Amino acid sequence: MKKTQAKPVILRLVVSLVVLGGAYLGLATFLSQHVPANATVNGIAIGGMSHGEAAGFVQRKLATRTSQPIHLQTPSGTVDIDPRTAGLGVDVQATLSDLGAFTLNPVRLWVQLVGANDQPLKVRVDRAKLAAAVTEAARAVDTPVKEGSIAFTGGKVTVVVSAAGQAVKVPETTDAVASAWPGQQVVKAVMNRSLPKVSGLEINRAATEFAVPAMSGSVEVLAGPAIVTLRPGQYASALSFATDVDNRLQPVVDPLKLLAAIRAVDPHIERLPVDATVTLEAGAPHVVPDVIGTTFDKSTAPASFLAALTSPRRVAIITLNASPPKVTTAMARAWQIKEVISTFTTQFPFNPPRTNNIKIAVGTLNGTLIRPGAQFSLNHTLGERTPSKGYQQAPVIYAGRLVTDYGGGVSQVSTTTFNAAFFSGVRIDRYTPHSFYIARYPEGREATVSWPGVDQQWTNDTGFGILIKATVVGNDLTVTFLGTKTWDIQAVRGPRRNVVQPRTIVDDRTSCVPQSPTAGFDVTVARIFSKNGTQIKTSSFSTHYIPEDNVQCSHPAAS
Asked: Residue 423 and residue 441: Cα distance in Å, rounded?
């Protein structure tokens, strides 16, 4: 009987549990499809809404906020960043995913039923785009450090005050924007500040204590007996500033520019030294004494001038030092240029342009001094033969034929000089004979010259100085070497060898220059060095001459 009565009770209990379980499950299912009561997302109330309703509502509420620019704040101003361009966005679905998830946990069900905490927004960040946007924004506000300066221009002071630089720290600022958005529309940029080496205060100090007083008036410079007044505009370029180890500005005076300014006012305040030399006077050697010069003392001039710029008297005393010449009178006398050591004369034919060129070259060569051990170069002495120097066109030898060119005839000056060198005993370094033999010159003892390659060079190894005297008298060209005679020189010419007869050429060109036939041959000339009648040494010079062809000009206009 008791067992029969217990069965309905158990059945009703089971049914009640099933009903309650279904209700509980239904409640859990309902709550999983809706956000918790009183739920908010970033302050937006969405309690009790379905997930779809909540997502749409949150998107609408955030639309205005997330589209507004981010104001990046820097010390020099604010620059805007477009969040969409910067790769920033709100992930609403991810934000709501944790609200209303299905659960049978009674505690979580209770929370979903009665309320929930504010849900933070979940943000999508494209790190590369955001960093690029911050970098672009930084270009508008970054400023380099400005180093101040003080310049002296035209006698006036120009001051540029130092200013610190600033630069946005892109990685740190990118983090700050990503963390603040969209809750904050204004984000303070993380900055890097760069300080100038010389502060603005130091710039102002140097300007006040030195620069302005330095340009305030003229300075009197006392140099020996001379007094020179320099105005600010005249000495300004010599002034500048340099920083010391403590980054303090120290005034600097450029001695070269200062002394140049003084010389510009008084070119004769210094006297350059003059070397002693030997010149020709009335055709004879004459020693011209040296002159001791006076020059500024470059080592003490800057300090003296610097002190004067801020002193009440504004007077700078600059020392003049004696400046000795490189060649003293005693040295010039020791060259012992006192007698004729060699001389040679050649005769030249009538040809006015050629004679003109010879006279110009002789005038340049005359008085040339070759110190002991120095090398003589005829091209260096005469320079290029040009119309501006007065040279005219006259016959010269080119490729075995006579042509006209500026300076024709100077080879006769070269040959005459070569023979004077030959008989003086100097060391012959370089010479070039004419390509064919010219009868007015000694066989094997002649030298042509052409600018710039064909030159005559010899070294004065006599131990004494040599002064060249060159003259033209009538049709005679004479070159004489004055010095101290060291050698007695004798020339011995050998016989002609390998004789080749010339050809006959008929040329109908208007530029044709006629030639008289001369055979080609080889010849050797010995130079015998003697002292007091005793032969000491010999040297030889071998020359090869090509034939000078018989050129007959057939054109009526040919020269």
From this structure: 15
**pLDDT tens-digit map of 500-526:** 998 888 888 887 888 788 899 999 999
* DSSP output for 323-364: E--SS-HHHHHHT---EEEEEEEEE--S-HHHHHHHHHHHHH
Pairing of strands 277-281, 165-168: unpaired
117 secondary structure, DSSP code: P
What would the pLDDT profile of 75-113 be if each residue is shown by its tens digit?
888 999 988 888 888 877 777 776 655 555 565 555 555
pLDDT at 428: 97
pTM of the model: 0.59
Place of tokens 């501006």: 388
Longest dimension (CA), the chain: 179
DSSP state of 130: H
Q: Which amino acid is residue 370, in one-letter code?
A: I
Q: From CA 155, how far away is CA 219, in angstroms rounded?
A: 12
* Distance separating alpha carbons of residues 57 and 520, to the nearest angstrom: 119
Place of tokens 């380099």: 144
C-alpha to C-alpha distance for 54 and 61, rounded to whole angstroms: 10
CA distances from 234 to 56, 155, 221, 265 (A): 81, 7, 13, 9
3-state secondary structure 25-57: HHHHHHHHCECCCCCEECCEECCCCEHHHHHHH
User: What's the confidence (pLDDT) of residue 31?
Assistant: 47
| pLDDT score of 27 | 46
Whole-angstrom Cα distance, residue 335 to residue 337? Answer: 6
